[in-house]
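Handout for the seminar on molecular recognition.
Each group receives one record of this type.
Step one: identify the two inputs.
Step two: read the structure output and locate the region that could contact 0PR.
Step three: write two sentences on what you found, then compare them with the reference statements printed after the record.
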Amino acid sequence: MQRAAPQEFSRVLSSMCTEPHPAARDAAERFLATNPGDPETYQEVARLERRAVETLGEIADLSDPHGYVTSGGTEANVQAVRSARNRLRVEDPNVVVPESAHFSFTKAADVLGVELRRVPTDDDHRADVDAADAAVDDDTVLVVGVAGSTEFGRVDPIPELAAVAHDAGAFLHVDAAWGGFYLPFTDHEWSFAHAPVDSMTIDPHKSGRAAVPAGGVLFRERAGLDALAVDTPYLESTSQATLTGTRSGAGVAAAAAAMDALWPDGYRREYERVAELATWFAAELRERGFETADVDLPLVAASISEPVFERLREEGWRISRTESGELRVVCMPHVTREMLTAFLADVEAVHAA
Ligand code: 0PR
């Protein structure tokens, strides 16, 4: 029997996907044929989903979380925008996001007919609070802060953005899709306990080590989730708040299994490992003449010339660049010191050539 080659992670440096935890892999296989979109019929996976949401709530400091396991950060962000729009029902809704926000908000604005207002970030790539304040008005339904930005791993000033949002009568959403499994072990003010956050994206299939697809959306209030529900007259379950209908029981079960195995000690150990790794790697790059942004969450951004970048890609390194051209290395669970040492050797070889 022909089997597809497994994903080879040995040269993947810019991705936010990673090797799932063995327990997650196992759970994914067992629940492959279940559909959490019909929780009355598939009750065991529905129970695992409630457990996953409870744990996501613990991670994000929310004791009574309302949410579900999405197909990913994109669905979670779309649903946060949709919920805010549905709850506030203004004539001409807009959403204020920092320039650093993930492109999923562009999709959200497009499908939901909401205006997207992108405001500048500061010199350190964090949302500029004054710019957000200047952008909100009576029609703003949501302000977004990123906690672990895709390009630079930066955490926006969440309490300040929450104040801007609430003063304008809008909701505050935190996109911790990638950062959420690291932030509990840092001093950042990012969670439901640190600020009056209304909703959050936090994805088990990124640094949470679940199998794809497993994102997460959380709401502080039941009304946040209820604003998404539609009636499902002929199913055993009578309403559905998810964006997709049939969805992956594999992702849900994998999320529950990974978090069971790793929260909190496993994630803490992993955070400590990658924090040290990213700091070391940035210093090694600087020694070789690169300029690097300060490392915050475990993502290293470094200046790199086009020819060197292209040569490294030709060597098989799976790397990408920020909009402003920096090399991005995301220190995911599969990224080791051995891998980065091999990368640095190739950097030297390319420079010498
Ligand atoms: N929010 C943030 C902060 C993100 O970084 C991402 C994805 C999303 C939302 C959207 O999440 P989903 O992709 O789960 O819908 N960030 C990665 C990126 O755009 C996604 C990614 C993952 C890209 C793996 C490539 C890859 O190999 O870089």
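Reference statements: The chain has a mean pLDDT of 96. Residues 265-287 form the longest helix (23 residues).
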